[in-house]
Amino acid sequence: MAGRFRYFHVVVTDSGWLLEPQEFSVPGNQTHLDVTGLITGIGYEVRLTGVSESGLLSRPLTTVAVTGTSQRTPPPLAESHTSLTGCTIFGSNSVISF
């Protein structure tokens, strides 16, 4: 649920660690992130961590998706206040919903 966190820290890493991980800070009231510049046909790990107003970190949530498809592994079970609901990657663009 958006709004319970000051911001989210999102890290996108290619499965082969060929490129530097991309890191993003997303405001706590935002529920998606558009990522561009991904390589078609490879897997990416997306890790989301919520940061509370007091600076406490949530347990990271992780999913894996392959560019050029809508395939992804389901996110692990998470605490009720945070969830990574989707990761859709098409070609070199990605939409991450949380």
From TrEMBL:
<dbReference type="InterPro" id="IPR013783">
    <property type="entry name" value="Ig-like_fold"/>
</dbReference>
<feature type="domain" description="Fibronectin type-III">
    <location>
        <begin position="1"/>
        <end position="76"/>
    </location>
</feature>
<dbReference type="InterPro" id="IPR003961">
    <property type="entry name" value="FN3_dom"/>
</dbReference>
<dbReference type="InterPro" id="IPR036116">
    <property type="entry name" value="FN3_sf"/>
</dbReference>
<protein>
    <recommendedName>
        <fullName>Fibronectin type-III domain-containing protein</fullName>
    </recommendedName>
</protein>
